Amino acid sequence: MIQPEFPADEPERALRFWRGLLGASLDERTGGEGEGWQTHGDGPALGIHPRGRGPGDTWSLPYFEVNDLPGALESVAELGGTVIHPGESWAICKDSEGTPFGLAAQ
Question: How many CB atoms lie within 10 A of CB 38?
Answer without folding.
Answer: 20
